[in-house]
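(Structure overview)
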Amino acid sequence: MNDLLWTLALFAYVSAVLALASALLRKGLLSSEGARKTVHILVAFTILPMVYGIHSPWLRLAGPAAFALINAWLGKRRGERRAGLVLYPVSIFIMTALMNAGVLSPLSVIAFEERYLLEYVFYSQDLSILQLQCRMLF
């Protein structure tokens, strides 16, 4: 599968996850916190194909950049001020950029995402997303 197909497939997958979580939230089947956790858990699975399937450094950055911008725009449009909407894709963008520059290995990016996922699931009640990201980086 070439880079563009991987990128389009990941865009479609993330969009489907967002649509699913939104629909479940609207129907009352998930709370706001449940919908957010569902998105974070399911989107975390994109890290493997992004790191190993997409070889173009620019296309690797396209997804996180696009979703950071889309989330910022949607949040502003809806009047929401949730930092996690933008910080989650921004953190993936930064880690991917560092991997593209050779500063981080692909495995460290995957390990970061998996650790982020586990800590988010278990500790999101106590810590803000930004605190979690700072703890994992240092």
